[in-house]
Amino acid sequence: MAVGARANAYNFAVTFFAAFGSFTYGYNSAIMGSVIGLPSFFPYFNIDESSSKGSSITGAINGVYYGGGALGCWTIAYLADYFGRRRCIQIICVGCIISAALQAGSVHIAMLLVGRLLNGFCIGLINSIIPTYQSEIAPAAQRGRLVGSHGFIICIGYAMAGWAGYGSYFETNPAIQWRLVLALQAVAPLLLLIGSPWLPESPRWLISRGHDAEGLRILERLHARPDDPYHIAAREEFMQIHKQVELERDQKVRNLIQLLIHPTYRRRMLYGFFFQCLAQMTGVLVLLYTNLGLHGAAPLVLYACFNTWASFCNWVNSMILDRFGRIRIMAIGVIGCAVCVTIEAAMVARYANGGSKAGNAIGVLFIYLFVTFYGGCVDVSMYVYCSEIFPTLIRAQGVGFSISGLFVSALLFTELAPTAFNNIGWIYYLVFIFPPLFAVGFFIKYFPETKGLALEEVGAKFGDEVALDLTHLTEKEREDLDRKLADITTLTEVNHPAIVQQDA
Predict the structure, then answer these.
(1) Residue 197 falls within a domain, yes or no?
(2) How many domains does the chain have?
(3) What is the CATH number of the domain that holds 330?
(4) Is residue 438 part of a domain?
(5) Could you give the 3-state DSSP secondary structure of residue 128?
(6) pLDDT tens across 101-116, in order?
(7) Torsion over CA: 326, 328, 332, 335 (sign)
């Protein structure tokens, strides 16, 4: 008797290879933090880093990136639904490579900003399509672990950006120092592009487009196991996907306005957007502006170690999601982050302009405790949850809209940070203490848990009809269904309505 689909080695390999796109997002998002810390960067453009113009340029570099990212998130559905998930990934990789070349070859700050804008747009696309793709090939019981690889590999990208910046700090040729680390943005998307022909298309996208035979073949390959010689689990999943797609196809909900009008879809869109904003409300990006009296290469080392530890914590997050659930883990993380930011604010207020080495050490310690909570509970959870709450026909658009919350809130907080710290100092940290604590109570009460449910069954948590609920079949019903599936030999038989009775 089948007990539900399980990922095999091929499924894990495909998931982690697609995560080259996750690495692309992580490295590209973090690399400018290293570049700005390199001594040759601002002098090359004849800009005084400490001047108002220097602050404006720093803000613009972040602003165009996150603004472009939001635009990419809002565009992803048109590419992903029209071309398919795999072709969409290929198109995005080309854009990432071009934007990396523009930035590395910049001879004027305007050229850098244009490259950064294009890069942000492509990163918004890739940060949406990768968890969408991973969720559509992952079995329900292991979806947290597989989709969680997106957040884990993002942090690997953050860490590599930090160490690349630290290594470049000691390069004596100023023409190479900052260009090299920007050029390295092209490596991961190039590898993903080269290997992409071997990625299978999303079976859910294929089935939604009427390519049932190919969709079933890919499901069987993704979930093939020695203890399931007749591919019963894959056939169950195929039937569930097909019946749900047929049920939802008549709703004809496609554009953003229709999605926001539809009650259950609107709830999902707002929940996903809120989830991503809440992660940024912890202050994870703004914490990087913390000044504890460190100078020279020391901030780059701190930055690199910070992200290396975050990578490990993200891995832990991905491993525990399927056991403890999304909501509980996310709540622990947000509360822990708020406590750490509270103590960090006190350390900055007391020691930011010099003073006790012990006080500075405590400040550094709580930065690491912060990332322990954020990486161990928040970073992976937000991607997994947003990738699994939407139906197949609107998943790309829903995930894109949700992740745009990350870019919009990151744009807001990072643009305000330099001015806020210059004018009100540590008081700005209060924004990342009280609002998240208020918000966490809201999502604990209202956000449904999705652990262990097939993507087609999650809709029941939002009031939608589920065509075939495999999770709640009785033992006898599952035995009868599996016996029928083991006896069939053609796709027509798999998909025949007589195979699955409504009372099953």
Answers:
(1) yes
(2) 1
(3) 1.20.1250.20
(4) yes
(5) helix
(6) 999 999 999 999 999 9
(7) positive
